[in-house]
Amino acid sequence: MASQNRPTFFYATVSVTIVLVLTSIFLTLFLHANHITDIVKQNLNILVEVQDVMPAAEINRLQKIIISKKGVIPSSLEFVSKEKALEYMSKELTQLSQEIENPFRNLIKFNLRADYYSDQYIKQIQQDLEFEKGVIGLYYENDSIDVIKANINQVSYIILGLTTIFIFLTLAIIFNTIRLTLFADIKFIRTMQIVGAENRFITGPYYISAFKMSMVANLIILLVLGVLYYYGIFYNAIIGEILNPLLLLLTWGLCFVLALFITLGSTYWVIHKFLKDHY
């Protein structure tokens, strides 16, 4: 192939890389959506409000009842006194001061495993606990899960739309790149045909270039996903908890297949159409 067309192949490689970056972002969000939702569920506090005059023995008995429920995470169970609640909220809201009456009540806080977190099951726990002595009520929220799901879906669709647009742009760039290269090599191709070279021998270098293009793009994506996972494990506990290495490998595998499909598929189509039209 003509060496003067190398910059054009560089731009095609950059375009493929951009497509794979967007695809990897979309796939990472899409494949981790349920995992993110599960983490949110397990971090949503369920609060049991109890009377202020409730003896410590009764509180301990109530905690044992709660921890005996299926799906309750034992390490999440915590008694929060109204004084502790006021102290915490005073740091968050400067308006609160020691001069006003404490508006909080004693609470028992706990979390459920994601596979048990549902309105039906929590209401069942609520009904059981409200019959216990000293329990005022049980409170939880479910709106956060719906909001997070909606936001993930919205961002995913936006990224998917951008990915689709860039795929078409990339295909156009690759088509033009290969066609320009073929026209630049037209004398070389004719010479090879005159001496009896087979089509697969003539087209081989172009497929090799397309394969190298996809490999470079895939190595960059592998590096990006690796850096993201490394950052999550060592520097950001939340990201580290969300990211699943198997899902990241699946993301890279799908990007690998997409890169080969875009580069080799478009190369095959352009070369065979060119040879058919000109020879």
Number of helices: 9
Label the overall shape: rod-shaped
Low-confidence stretches: 1-5
Q: How many distinct beta strands? A: 4
Name the structural class.
alpha+beta
Termini distance? Answer: 18 Å
Largest sheet: 4 strands, antiparallel
Order of helical and strand elements: HEHEHEHEHHHHH
Radius of gyration in whole Å, from Cα?
30 Å
Which strand order does the major sheet show?
A: 2-3-1-4
User: How is the quaternary structure best described?
Assistant: single chain
Task: Please tell me the overall pLDDT.
Answer: 82
Q: What is the beta-strand fraction?
A: 5-15%
Helical amount = over 70%
Structure, described:
It is rod-shaped and about 100 Å long. It has 9 helices and 4 strands. It has a 4-stranded antiparallel beta sheet with strand order 2-3-1-4. α1 (6-43) packs parallel to α7 and α1 (6-43) packs antiparallel against α9. The two termini are 18 Å apart. The longest helix has 42 residues, at 143-184. Mean pLDDT is 82; it is low at 1-5. Helices cover 72% and strands 6% of the residues. With 279 residues, the chain is an alpha+beta fold.
